[in-house]
Amino acid sequence: MSAEATNPEARPEARPELSRRGRTRLDLRRLGRAALLGPASRDRLPDAIGHVAEAHRAHHPDADLSLLRRAYVLAESSHRGQMRKSGEPYITHPLAVTLILAELGAETTTLTASLLHDTVEDTEVTLDQVRAEFGDEVCFIVDGVTKVEKIDYGAAAEPETFRKMLVATGNDVRVMSIKLADRLHNMRTLGVMRPEKQARIAKVTRDVLIPLAERLGVQALKTELEDLVFAILHPEEYEHTRALIAAHAGERDPLPAIAESVRAVLREAGIAAEVVVRPRHFVSVHRIARGRGELRGSDFGRILVLVGENADCYAVLGELHTCFTPVVSEFKDFIAAPKFNLYQSLHTAVATPEGYVAEVIVRTRQMHRVAEAGVVALGNPYATAPAAEPAPDCDEERVDPTRPGWLSRLLDWQQSAPDPDTFWSVLRAELAQDREITVFHEDGRSSGTLSLPAGASCIDAAYAQYGEAAHGCIGARVNGRLTSLASRLSDGDTVQLLLAQDASSGPGADWLEHARTPAARIAIGSWLQAHPDIAKPAATPARAPLSVVGARGGGGNAVADLPDATVRLAGCCTPVPPDAVAGFVVRGGAVTVHRIHCASVAQMRALGRTSVAVHWRATADCRVTLLAESFGRPHLLADLTEAIAREGVEVVSATVEPPVEQRVRHTYTLQLPDATGLPALMRAMRDVPGVYDVRRA
Per DSSP, what are the bridge partners of residue 653? Predict the structure, then answer.
């Protein structure tokens, strides 16, 4: 973990926004000299970690610093004699990483593990020593950050290291916090590497570490990582953006005056608030320039309003929209609907009389802390555990109460991707999904919520809820309406997934086209690979409806009160005893019998047709037409026909329409030996796997 870099802080003109933020930067040369002097006396902290202690106490005034002192002594002694490629003593790296986390407000355990994060990997220190000296919590975190041995994994070492780290992060998010700070310091000091190695590290940072920082809500690390990657991978665009920012620095900035106007409005309204101007970082300016073309002075920053309570946020919003002209399309409420990475704020934009448009972010101070530090701001997720409860073993799986839904999904599918290349490529694809939705699921026995990436389909929901049992999914109801499995879900949808009872049911090859989540794609791909004959059915031309026709009857056991008249049962409503019916004379003198509530009855009467009284014979047999709707699957027609035959019913005719979006419509004309058996017949047909509706025609 000793990558070295072009140091943007050595070129202050390249990163003006960092100096304005006033962040502490380590003087590596001074730290190196302090580190070489060895540990301080027992009654005070070593000089080299004075910065860390000061930053830590700013967030945690009552923190016990003795643990940090012991960790530094072990780290300094074990790394003594090791040098970074830039020439500084190696101990400056864990010190810098620890200071980054201390500035974000990390608690003492995280800082202790950060000081030791390279000892097991790069020195003779063992995990057993770390556990004995600092306890199971620190041991677990250090082990999670430690790389796997390249001699054991070869080219797969990097993906397997990330897999190991992600699994550990699923049990303790502090593991990834240290990894992100570690990568940030390495990216800051990457300049001594060869250009090709800089590019390789920057690409992994872009594809994996930056999305992880976004998901964990650590915006302070994410934005600086973005700028460092931008400078390495897109040097020309970076220089162009740097020139835009430098040119703006010499012009009049309208944002301070707008911020003062906002302060005046809030003072007059009696709202206690802190109003500051936040410069945009390089990548943000670049994105604005690409989207808007020519930049104006107010585009180089945003106004941040910090208040005490949630209600104050909406009070500020009301004053802003009253005293300025709001840009309605720019309003977003992430307080009522937080982002999946813990982020909460109100976003709006207002136009001033001078014609400037200023973006404004409104949040509480606690929201601001979480927005900047994300999971780091949550502190120790195990602090509420009873003191008498023994600490978990370093190798046992633990459940972190801060684990987000996307991480749970990732941990699930990574178990099904034993191939490192598959894991690495699918991980990047998963992290490229930058939005998440929540859907509600119900299966008749229980209900709950599912977190899915934006654009997920019912197929993704099925595998998220049922795992490999979703191979037998045959359809879904979304918000109560039947829909195909390919349908995309929206935030807040309620989905009911329908599973086949046939164990041989499986996914179709087209499912891969509609699956978005890695868990679904890996499971479907594995099933299709194991069933190649089913996975690749022979192409067939479009089919006409399949019809099976038997002997057709006339009026069955209906009798019309019209001598010698031919009686026919209407095909539109297929009346059976003891339905209330009405007959009408049609062309040729025949009498057509309809159910009394059939729409055709109203039409006949509207046309002035005279009705004929009709009654049923004493015989119990009857003829009826049923419509069955189902999801397409192999052997469905055979199973339906068998269910009908088991009820002792004769099929007079059957029509099966070609599938439309995996749904199939069947029309059966049936001869029943007894009309009273119709409800039982319809229940038997509905019980056939894949059939979701059976009704009279």
Answer: 549, 669
Sheet of strand 447-453: strand arrangement: 447-453, 436-442, 494-499, 473-478, 481-483
327/308 Cα distance (integer angstroms):
25
Residue of 47, 122, 442, 657 marked catalytic: 122
Please name the residue ranges forming H helices in 80-135: 92-104, 108-115, 119-122, 127-134
Asked if residues 449 and 438 have their Cβ atoms less than 8 Å apart, the reply is yes
| Contact (Cβ atoms closer than 8 angstroms) between residue 122 and residue 58 | no
Q: Which pLDDT value is given to residue 647?
A: 85
Within a 13 Å sphere around the CA of 396, how many CA atoms are in the beta-carbon half? 8
Question: Residue 390: what pLDDT?
Answer: 42
Comparing 531-540, 541-550, 594-603, which segment has the lowest mean pLDDT?
541-550
Please indicate whether residue 294 is annotated as part of the active site: no
How far apart are the C-alpha atoms of 406 and 464, rounded to whole Å? 11
422 token code pair = 């598959």
In whole angstroms, give the CA distance from residue 385 to residue 697.
Answer: 63
122 catalytic residue (yes or no): yes
Rounded CA separation 343/364 (Å): 12
Q: Is the Cβ–Cβ distance between 457 and 443 less than 8 Å?
A: no
Looking at per-residue confidence, does 119 or 437 come out higher? 119
Query: Mean pLDDT over residues 35-46, rounded?
Result: 47
Of 487 and 566, more confident: 487
Do residues 398 and 392 make contact, with C-beta atoms less than 8 angstroms apart?
yes
Catalytic-labelled residue, pool 9, 47, 54, 121: 121
Q: Give DSSP secondary structure letters for 7-30.
A: -GGGSGGG-HHHHHHT-----HHH
Q: What is the dihedral of CA 192, 193, 198, 204, to 10 degrees?
A: -110
Q: Where are the alpha helices (DSSP H) in 337-446?
A: 365-373, 405-414, 420-431
- The beta strand positions in 386-493, using DSSP E, are 436-442, 447-453, 473-478, 481-483
- Strands of the sheet containing 650-656, edge to edge, are 546-549, 650-656, 663-672, 622-631, 691-696
Instruction: Give the C-alpha separation, 423 to 156, whole Å.
Output: 10
Long-range contacts formed by 448-452: CB under 8 A, 24+ apart? 450/405, 450/495, 451/340, 451/404, 451/405, 451/406, 451/408, 451/409, 452/409, 452/489, 452/516, 452/517
